[in-house]
Amino acid sequence: MIGIIGAMEDEVELLQQEMDLEEIVQKAGMSFYKGTLCGQKCVIVQSGIGKVNAALCSQILVDVFQVDALVNTGIAGSLDAQIDIGDMVISTDAVQHDVDATIFGDPLGQVPNMDIFAFPADEKLAGLAKKVNEEVNPEIHTFMGRVVSGDQFVSSKEVKDHLVATFHAKCTEMEGAAIAHAAYLNKIPCVIIRAISDKADNSAEMDYPAFEKLAIAHSVKLVRGLLEALK
Ligand code: ADE
Fold first, then answer.
1. How far apart are the CA of 197 and the centre of ligand 1, in A?
2. CA distances in angstroms from 86 to 20, 44, 143, 195, 197, listed in the order given
3. Nearest atom in ligand 1 to 152's CA
4. From atom 9 of ligand 1, which residue's Cα is the shortest distance away?
5. Which of 173, 192, 212 to mutate to test the pocket of ligand 1 (most atoms within 8 A of CB)?
6. Ligand 1 mean position to 185 CA, how many Å?
7. Residue 231: strand, helix, or coil
8. Which of 108, 101, 205 is nearest to 153 (CA)?
9. What is the distance between the alpha carbons of residues 41 and 21, in angstroms, rounded to a whole number?
10. 133-186, pLDDT tens digit by residue?
11. pTM of the full structure
12. How far apart are CA 159 and CA 178, in angstroms?
């Protein structure tokens, strides 16, 4: 059973409509759609935005649905000049960029007392996602690397420059690292797949609404392809 999490309605509704639905379970204000999609048993859920929603949602998927893996799908702001709007980023690991215990000597992003800095993606899942994306979305570029998450929509050059300099990440969003953190604690594999909707700078305010749908179309295609490949 695969848990598929998207923060926003547009990121999951198409997948939920297409699935062979067994039941919808309501919990913590979230609707968990359990069934089969592309031949794979899964639960597809809209978590809501932000790290707390994403972490809660992940734990429910583990405890109530006993998922074997977590896939986070959605969109993100690019942190790399090479990565354009529409392109795909697949996580190798994820860091919460707004965790700050630097006063105690921890690097920015380090969750105090955790035994790791960056929460890893499952290498097999990430590798498969890359291969599948190159097949199902051949018109865009596929990148692998670090994803940073924070409870913040990044839309200024100053904040972007700070994230780029500090974390060497490929993209920024608001849930992925919380999901990767939950997966790490529960010892299950996870991967974050994010299509780029904006460049997380002063152009983000204009670009995000203009390119949100295009980016979501790419991530939805990849989720379908990934489920198919996991059969
Ligand atoms: N999701 C899509 N674009 C984003 C941005 N610029 N910051 C945070 N989350 C995002």
1. 8
2. 29, 23, 12, 6, 6
3. 8
4. 173
5. 173
6. 25
7. coil
8. 205
9. 10
10. 999 999 999 999 999 999 999 999 999 999 999 999 999 999 999 999 999 999
11. 0.98
12. 20
